[in-house]
Design goal:
By secondary structure, the chain is mainly alpha-helical. 62% of the residues lie in helices and 0% in strands.
Amino acid sequence: MSDPIGGITSTAVSGLQAAQAQADQAASNIAGYGATETPVPTGGPALTGTQPSNIAGAVQQASGGTDLTTQVLDLLNARNAFAANLDVLNTGNQLQKQAIDITA
């Protein structure tokens, strides 16, 4: 017999780990932005269009093809993914408690 609650838990934990890895990579790229090393691309969409000159430096394309705006958005996406997976984990825990209460 499969354990559906265990499946929920393992999926949520995997999602938490993936979100943490994405957040770590984006934070590392943000911390190293403007350094001589090329940031690791995270696969986010590139910023397009013209930018006002007063913020041009902040959104300037990095040598690795990754810009600061994309890195910040990746960090926010990782935060949201982490929160969503944490909600799934909490729901799984509630289901497990209810299952124990029913069988007790």
